[in-house]
Every structure is written in structure tokens, then in C-alpha cells.
Write a structure and sequence with these properties.
The protein is built from 10 helices and 4 strands. The chain is mainly α and 212 residues long.
């Protein structure tokens, strides 16, 4: 009698391999993700260094504008508080700002977004293309999301920060869930005040907070 409940064995090295691939894709922002993935794994199979671009390297953008925190803030204002945005509407907003379509496609592919895009997750990945570290990425995200403008330091609800940090760390793949939980618990108990807001300095200047 055929066995139908055979357990599928996952190679132990697979999770880490996929995490490293995802992190490299976010850092590199390839124009053609499929072709880049093929080159990446071919290099890995030969024992060579995979094709990756350092975030400090310039990206050829032809006549397109370079993504900046200021442009992300404009995008965020046009999303107008919605949690979900349709991919076609986002693509139109992106086009109006003359941003490179290959970057949009790369973020969509890395985030595995479909027609309905979770805006905060998209924003987190877009910020990660600008930030060298997770701390820098979260700093940019706070500045984009802050509604304080010029009246004081950028700050956002701690619940939003918690969501962003957890998601970015998960995608990054090199930070354990237990470390993320410890940092968030410390910040909630020792840093966050009665207003429930977190400022950029709260996680960039405090020596006891190590997000990486």
C-alpha cells in the first residue's frame, strides 16, 4: 500500500542559504532579478563570490531620479494612511516621481508582493535600499513616517517601529527573533514614554540598544 504521509525533509542548509540570497538581492537591487539569481547561484556552485553591489556604489539611472528619503516621504503622503495599495496605483505614483522602474520591480520581487501591497512592508524594503545598516534603515523609515516635520526630532508610534524592526530583521535573516524580542522589550520598558512614541535618538544614541 503506497505511503501518503511521507515527511518532507528540508536540507538543513536551505534556510540560511535563502536568507543570504534575500539579503544580497535587497542590497544589490538587480534590474533583472531572475537573471541575477541564476548568476548568483551559479557563482555559489563554483565556489566563487556571488555578484553583489555594495549599497554605497552608484546605480545607473539614465533619466530617472534617484530614490531619496524625501521622495519616499512624498510617496507616503500620497498613500494617505492606507495599509494596502494596489500595485498599479503604486507603479503610477512611482512613475510620476520619475523613479527607476527596475527598483520598484526589485522591491516587489524581494517582498513577494502581489497585486495588493502592504505599504509599510514595501516602505521598509525601499528604506533598506538606502540604509547601510538596520539602524540606518529604521532611521530613514522614522523620518519618512514622522508627522512632526520641523517641530522636533523624527518620531513614530512604538507599535509601528516594532512592526518595521521585526519585518526588516526577518528579511535580513542574520538577526535572531530572540534578539529582536529582547531589544523591543528593553525599549518598551526603559525607553518609551507615556506618549508611546519612539524618537530616532532613542535607538541610535543609546549604547544599550544594538539592533543588528
Amino acid at each position: 500500500m503506497p505511503q501518503t504521509d511521507k515527511q518532507i525533509c528540508i536540507p538543513p542548509e536551505l534556510p540560511d542559504l535563502l536568507k543570504q540570497f534575500t539579503k544580497a538581492a535587497i542590497r544589490t537591487q538587480p534590474q533583472d532579478l531572475i537573471q541575477w539569481a541564476a548568476d548568483y547561484f551559479e557563482a555559489m556552485s563554483r565556489g566563487d563570490i556571488p555578484p553583489m553591489r555594495d549599497r554605497s556604489d552608484p546605480v545607473a539611472s539614465c533619466n530617472f531620479a534617484e530614490l531619496t528619503p524625501e521622495l519616499l516621504k512624498i510617496l507616503h503622503s500620497r498613500v494617505a494612511g492606507r495599509l494596502i495599495i494596489h500595485v498599479n496605483e503604486l507603479a503610477q505614483m512611482w512613475k510620476v516621481l520619475s523613479l527607476p522602474p527596475e527598483l520598484l520591480n526589485s522591491v516587489i520581487n524581494v517582498g513577494r508582493f502581489t497585486e495588493e501591497i502592504e505599504w509599510l512592508k514595501f516602505l521598509a524594503l525601499a528604506c533598506s535600499s538606502l540604509g547601510v545598516t538596520i539602524s540606518k534603515t529604521l532611521k530613514i523609515a522614522c523620518e519618512v513616517l514622522s508627522s512632526d516635520h520641523d517641530s522636533g526630532p523624527a518620531r513614530i508610534p512604538f507599535s509601528t517601529f516594532q512592526f518595521l524592526y521585526t519585518y526588516i530583521a526577518e528579511v535580513d535573516g542574520e538577526i535572531s527573533a530572540s534578539h529582536v524580542s529582547r531589544m523591543l522589550a528593553y525599549m518598551e520598558q526603559e525607553v518609551i514614554g507615556p506618549d508611546g512614541l519612539i524618537k530616532v535618538d532613542d535607538f541610535t544614541q543609546n549604547p544599550r540598544i544594538r539592533l543588528e
